[in-house]
Amino acid sequence: MKVQFFTGLQCSLCDLAQHALSQVKGAEKLEVEMCNVRDNTDWYHLYCARIPVLKRADTGQEIGWPFTTDDLETFFQ
């Protein structure tokens, strides 16, 4: 499954989110695209105040911080 991970530089919440993502069952099967919101004007306007955010490529569904490993496992079902 392809997932976009909207993040920013030196974002401690993003570090926590990345750790939670690594703990998800089947995480090794996820294709995660890291997207720094400062690299794209549209991303910046959509996500800057909300990072970290994960977005599924197949459904467009998003989950924003705070989330737990359990929340992510439900998100990926």
UniProtKB/TrEMBL annotation:
Cross-referenced SUPFAM superfamilies: Thioredoxin-like
Q: Which Pfam families match?
A: Glrx-like
List, alphabetically, the Gene3D superfamilies matched: Glutaredoxin
- Xref: InterPro entries: Glutaredoxin-like (IPR008554), Thioredoxin-like_sf (IPR036249)
Name-wise, this protein is Glutaredoxin family protein
Q: Which organism is it from?
A: Alteromonas salexigens
